[in-house]
Specification:
Blueprint: H1 3-19, H2 38-47, H3 49-55, H4 66-80, H5 87-101, H6 109-118, H7 122-135, H8 153-159, H9 164-171, H10 176-181, H11 186-199, H12 205-219, H13 223-229, H14 231-245, H15 253-266, H16 272-290
Helix pairs in contact: 1-2, 1-3, 1-5, 1-16, 2-4, 3-4, 4-5, 4-7, 5-6, 5-16, 7-8, 7-9, 11-12, 11-16, 12-14, 12-16, 13-14
Length: about 290
Amino acid sequence: MKAEEIAKMAQIASALEVSGYPKPGNVHRTRDYEDMVFEDFIISGIVIGDAVREACSEVDIENPLLGKYILQAVAETDKWINNNTNLGIVMMITPIAAAAAISSSFDEIRENVKLLMANTSVDDACDLYDAINIADAGGMGNQDEYDVASDDAKNELRENKQTMYDVLKISAPWDMLAREMTSDMPAVFEIGYPAYHKLAQEKSKNDSCILTFLTILSQVPDTLISRKYGADEAIKISMMTRDLLNLKDEPDFKDKLKEFDEFLFKNKYNPGTTADLTAASIFVSYLKDNFH
């Protein structure tokens, strides 16, 4: 698949994810937050295109430079937007995009994601840390080991020869995106993508996005919520989501959905990790539809 096509699909997936409404607890086309608004995410989805295209061009399987392109996309976003709108999306989409570029069939993508992640370097780890710091994203790596906020963090990575895969593996117990990137992306390839792909054949793009988001959140407690409020609260939100999904065929489902959105917004429960997984799932579905 051509790099230009993959980049366009990444941009489309980013735009569709944030446009889904009312996507509970997150910014969407009828919900802004004080520090970030719907248009910020649309702009972010557009400006990552060049970095994704470059990541897919002449991929070196032995040294895919994933960290470089994640940093490039986040740095470009930072030129246009003052907030962290897409670090997680970029982290998920970049290895999938590069894997698609070297795959001869859709079924090879997931295995190639695993291969490329295994071949990340210490430089990738350092670039990822720079991207996290530019985005000012909390929670990933800011524990005792290889703290991204530490001035000596990158020196420690180099001294200990820690690759991007290595540092994400350390973060995996408390960060779902890190877990996905180091464990074959089960939430995306086994939950999110199959849900969206089936839904998109039957429902509108908006409904497909919302129901995919709810499907993921109902099965995978959001680690952005758990880092802020604890694992029990994240599990509670997932259980509430499961109950809501059981009502999806009821005539008052849209009203219940809006109520849930209001509840999460007012209580500052922001399932941001789920949004990133949803964008990646939409991206994979588009790859499936367009693979030749």
